[in-house]
Amino acid sequence: TPMYFFLSNLSFLDICFTSTTIPKMLVNIQIQSKAITYAGCITQMFFYLLFSVLDNFLLTVMAYDRFVAICHPLYYRVIMNPWLCGLLVLASWILSALHSLLQSLTVLQLSFCSLPEIPHFFCELIQVVHLACSDTFLNDMMMYFASVLLVGVLLAGIVYSYGKIVSSIRAMSSAQGKYKAFSTCASHLSVVSLFYCTSLGVYLSSAVTHDTHSSATASVMYSVITPKLNPFIYILRNKDINGALRRFFTRKP
Hints:
- The chain is mainly α.
- It has a single domain (2-250), classed as Up-down Bundle (Rhopdopsin 7-helix transmembrane proteins).
- The chain is built from 10 helices and no strands.
- α1 packs antiparallel against α9, α3 packs antiparallel against α5 (82-108) and α5 packs antiparallel against α7 (137-171).
- The two termini are 29 Å apart.
- 25% of the residues are buried.
- The model has no long low-confidence stretch (mean pLDDT 84).
């Protein structure tokens, strides 16, 4: 039950994550205009930051859920009770909203000399900050601090959880038990790898090269393609979801 509770939140988050950029992108393609209002740009930036950081939190919470399920199976129902699951999701939403609000408010303090052209397909925080005419030292420090504190700490939590999981799997005597434990984590590990590899690839490539076209293409993979692949990854690896879909499509009216 905790796993499906976190999966439902992740699915809802993926819908919100893609909805912050794709509708505006499709409108721009349809009307042949790439303009966006200042208020619309700040709003898009706020929700994009909110859902991207929340994705990090949820993946870390799900890693902890897998850690408890494999390393402490007898205490799983006691530890991962509904109260704790709800508290973890609520704390993730609050921290993500505070981070997004703080970053957006600091951008509002910047001034722009003329109508800026963002070399991207949406209002990304780094791209907007670099186009400002005023001093961006505070914004840069906040972005670096948030990256180290949020992404670094959360990724370290995922690595630590899977380090304990691997050591527990290696200690199992039966091959069937090892396979069952590994299959429990395979879907989540695939989503984590896809999310962090694409996101780190975007920001590392933008730091190394200044090719805006390649950076925008990598961002499409990170913010559009990856959330759409998550449901397929979990469906392919989950017998319960496969069975539910099979019963849904084969039932008679």
